[in-house]
Amino acid sequence: MVLLLGIHFPDSKPVIKALRSFYGIGPQIAAKIMAKHYITPLARMGSLENKQVLDLTADLTGMTIENEARRQLRRNIERLRDIKCYRGMRHALGYPVRGQQTQTQIKTAKKLNKVDRRG
Amino acid sequence: MATQACWRCLARPAQTTNGLSASMQRLTILRPTVHTFSTSTSRSTRVSKMRKERLEEKKKRAGKPPAPGERKAMRKMIVLSNTNALAVPSLQEMTAENISDPSYRSVVLSLPDKIVSRVRAAECFKTYQKWRLFRRPSIVLRSADVRLAQMMDDAKISKRVVRQVLVGGRGSGKSLYLLQAVASAMLKDWIVITFPEGQDLVNASTDYGPMPVIRPIMYQQKAYTAALLQRIVTTNPQLAELEMSMEHQLPAGVPAGLTLSKLAILGVNDTALAQPIFQALMKELTAPGRAPLLITLDGFNHINSLTAYRSSSFKLIHAHDFYLPSWFTSYLSGKNPLPNGGAVLAAMTHSNGPNNKTLEDRLSQLEKQQSLLNGNPLNPKDNPILPYLLATGQEHLANQVPDLDPYIRYDPRVLEVFSRTNTPSISSPEVSLSDSSSPSEPSTTLSLKNEGEKGEEEEEAAQSSTNSNPPTQQAAASWASLTPADSTIQVKRIQGLTKFEAKSLMEYWALSGILRAEVSERFVGEQWSVAGGGLPGELERTCLGMRF
Fold first, then answer.
1. Is the Cβ pair A38, B206 closer than 8 Å?
2. Which of A29, B263, B378, B479 has the greatest number of C-beta atoms within 10 Å?
3. Which residues of B403-430 are buried (b: 16+ CB within 10 A; e: fewer)?
4. Domains of chain B: which residue ranges?
5. Which of residues 51-90 of A touch B (CB under 8 A)?
6. Which residues make beta-bridge pairs with B243?
7. β-pair type (B316-318, B306-310)
8. Which residues contact B384 (CB under 8 A, 6 or more apart)?
């Protein structure tokens, strides 16, 4: 087991999957972080050296990920609503934001577009 | 009178008192009655239970899944013996003498038992070759193999280096040529270092990291280096008798006065030490008085372009920025000397190799130049401006190899590998021959002209005269003054077997009981043609591939 940012990952877990399990890290950022620390794309957590794990943790600590990233998203939507722009209003109403039709097929918008969006 | 029976269900005529047809009545009977309470399991539960049972049954039928690494081991497994195949009594073993003896050309020789496991450790046997069909691994000795063995003999005496890049179509036997070279080197007690697959160095499958101190930045591959050290130890048992002869700046904990195999094992056991130990080992192996060195690499196209590895700034790293590929190319190009003599062989691959325009163009240019040096006229289709030259009365330029394409952005780092190769500007074959030939006497050991295939022999002899010297003291002395030619990389085209070689090989297959056909001239000719002019890989497919 390897401890990364307070989470235990099994040795067999690919590093790229472990990194992408954090909210706010996608394929591109994960690849860049790995290249920065000379980790091959197929490396698994168990193959990392201690120094690499510490460096990764240090890097992740300084990034806007997990709750901080979710908060940032909510702040952005709140700002839109507060200035009462169209996008803010649509978010508040739970409607599609980017000009889509609303007669049918707006399930996703109803689910996601809200001011206190979970992320 | 029409029957009262229902035609559809052959039911008896209903006791229809209420006037409904039989089928309609059935429907009324089958109509589900709704109960407010039931003790039976719900339908969804039943279905999921059935699904579970079916899955379990399937698992039972499939058996235990393979353990981690088992499937890969099966995939990479090399089987070198088949007890069902007949032993061939007339089969001779390969020895240090007969591989360089021209009278053994086109003879099938088996690898001696003492080197089979070493060749296997060097990973020269490939999974796609048909070793598993025969009682013992054997190969047909081609004229190119004999010539290489002779050149290796020369190289040992005159302390020079044979440098070759092997080109040729898919299945033409480039990897077999490397195998033959490795076997020869083992029989001659050389030290052998092999890179069985160039792709493994560059496809980001092993770890990497920058080497400390070195600027501009150079990358190391610790795990691969450790595996390489292990391969060197297993391939060369003679390292156990050689002791360290100089001081090295190694990390703490490495005692002095070790044997070379023990030194290498330290690097195998601790990957952090692998890189410095490999460097120390190479210093030891190239120290004066050691045995000659054979270095081979299969899949040369892979190590001459960008790799799949990325730098810390997320840019793809060039293969030559990695220590091991650049180490290999430095020996191939002649940048690093091999003072005890040796051979550096690189085989191109056409099975999985990437397109590499720089390498292809430069190699074909070198090949043409070397062909001209050997007195062979240029093929008119190799010179696109030939009609123009002839029309404008510049025939004397017709035999010049054209420059590289000015409209292609070539990779300067790849061109650098060939920059030491002696390529004089060629105005006519005669002039260039006198430019490049050494002042020593003509080759004596390489006179293969006496028998068979005259055209090919002439070319071979001419090639060897430009690329090797006779094993005399005079040659050794004159060699020292010819340093540029020493770093000449020979582009060696491997072509299909001759019909004679193919026949000899097929006879061996037939004697082993694997090929069930009469090996007649006609049969050999047919198979030879079907196999694209005797390409060994294709011959194996046509003669041994289809087995019912």
1. no
2. B263
3. eeeeeeeebebbeebbebbbbeebeebe
4. 1-29, 82-433+454-495, 499-545
5. none
6. B259
7. antiparallel
8. B402
- Are the beta carbons of B303 and B325 closer than 8 angstroms? yes
Q: Which two tokens stand for residue B281?
A: 């080992």
Tokens of A42: 């197929």
Task: Say if residue B424's pLDDT is above 50.
Answer: no
Phi and psi at residue B259, to the nearest 5°: -75, 160
Q: Do B207 and A32 touch (CB under 8 A)?
A: no
The most distant pair of C-alpha atoms in chain B lies apart, rounded to whole Å, by 126
What pLDDT, in 10s, does the model give residues A4-59? 999 999 999 999 999 999 999 999 999 999 999 999 999 999 999 999 999 999 99
For A28, which residue in chain B has the nearest alpha carbon?
B314
Percent of chain B surpassing pLDDT 70: 80
What's the gap in Å between the CA of A34 and the closest CA on chain B? 8
* Single-letter amino acid code for the residue at B69: G
Of the ranges A29-38, A102-111, B384-393, the best mean pLDDT one: A29-38
Cite the residue boundaries of each domain of chain A with CATH code 4.10.910.10. 67-112
* Tokens (6 digits) for B257: 């006065």
As a residue count, chain B comes to 548
- Alpha helices by DSSP H, listed for B393-486, are 412-417, 429-436, 454-467, 473-480, 483-486
Do residues A37 and A56 make contact, with C-beta atoms less than 8 angstroms apart?
yes
**Mind listing the pLDDT tens digit for each residue in B19-42?**
455 555 555 455 555 556 677 777
Q: What is the largest CA-CA distance in chain A?
A: 56
**Yes or no: is domain A67-112 CATH 4.10.910.10?**
yes
For residue B294, the one-letter residue type is: L
- Unique residue bearing structure tokens 């019912």: B548
Within 10 angstroms of residue B245's Cβ, the number of other Cβ atoms is: 13
**Three-class SS of B133-148:** HCCCCEEECCHHHHHH
Distance (Å, rounded) from C-alpha B177 to C-alpha B149? 11
Q: Which residues of B touch A32 (CB under 8 A)?
A: 314
Q: Which helix (H) or strand (E) holds A51?
A: helix A50-61
Domain(s) of CATH 1.10.8.50: residues in chain A = 2-61
Q: Is A41 on the interface with B (CB under 8 A)?
A: yes
Task: Report the alpha-carbon distance of residue B427 to residue B424 in Å, rounded.
Answer: 9
B475 vs B152, residue with greater confidence: B152
What is the rounded CA–CA span in Å between residue B23 and residue B11? Answer: 8
Contact B207, A47 (CB under 8 A): yes
CB contact under 8 A, B207 and A42: no
State how beta strands A2-4 and B209-210 pair: unpaired
For residue B357, the tally of other CB atoms under 10 A from its CB is 15
Q: Per-residue DSSP letters for B150-182?
A: HHHHHHHHHT-EEEEEEE--TTSSHHHHHHHHH
pLDDT tens track for B348-387:
998 888 889 999 999 988 988 888 887 777 776 666 777 7
- Average pLDDT (A65-71) is 94
Q: How far apart are CA B394 and CA B388, in angstroms?
A: 8
Residue A114, class by beta-carbon neighbours within 10 Å (0-12 exposed, 13-18 middle, 19+ buried)? Answer: middle
Contact A40 B207 (CB under 8 A): yes
